[in-house]
């Protein structure tokens, strides 16, 4: 192995997602996550949106895909968002049910057997796999994958 770089503080900046139809994806992300549109490109052939909260960029949408997400291809496995409390996870679940979103599991599930953390696993309009979870409060439901991580194989 090579030499690693000494970085004192590293965190994820933002996540860029390719979408097929920004007119469909943008309202989904705004409604589900409460994102504000920080900026947007509307030129034909160059559609994009920068989404965030409290002025901080979190997700970018790029309309440059011809087909939906394929889990069989290398790349993004899923995008996960942490909230403070399990009640917030359940509130997002209700919004998603109103949008007739596709869920991997029925309702809130723990991250694994005996884990207190957990949440909901669902897909956006292009089939991109998403998760909203809380660090505690999900241990009242059975783990759908037993000892395997719930967020790993879906």
Automatic annotation (TrEMBL):
Transmembrane segments: none annotated. Keywords: Metal-binding. Residues 11-135 form the VOC domain. PROSITE patterns: GLYOXALASE_I_1 (PS00934), VOC (PS51819). Pfam families: Glyoxalase. CDD domains: VOC. It comes from the Bacteria. GO terms for molecular function: lactoylglutathione lyase activity; metal ion binding. This is Glyoxalase. It comes from Actinophytocola xanthii. The lineage of its organism: Bacteria, Bacillati, Actinomycetota, Actinomycetes, Pseudonocardiales.
């Amino acid at each position: 192995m090579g030499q690693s770089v000494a970085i004192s503080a590293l965190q994820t900046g933002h996540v860029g997602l390719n979408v097929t139809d920004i007119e469909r994806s943008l309202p989904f992300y705004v409604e589900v996550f409460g994102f504000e549109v920080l900026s947007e490109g509307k030129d034909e052939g160059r559609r994009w949106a920068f989404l965030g909260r409290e002025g901080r960029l979190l997700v970018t949408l790029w309309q440059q895909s011809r087909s939906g997400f394929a889990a069989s291809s290398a790349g993004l496995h899923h995008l996960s968002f942490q909230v403070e409390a399990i009640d917030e996870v359940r509130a997002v679940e209700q919004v998603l049910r109103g949008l007739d979103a596709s869920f991997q599991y029925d309702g809130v599930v723990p991250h694994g057997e005996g884990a207190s953390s957990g949440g909901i696993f669902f897909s956006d309009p292009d089939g991109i796999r998403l998760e909203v979870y809380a660090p505690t409060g999900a241990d009242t439901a059975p783990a759908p994958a037993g000892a395997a991580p719930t967020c790993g194989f879906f």
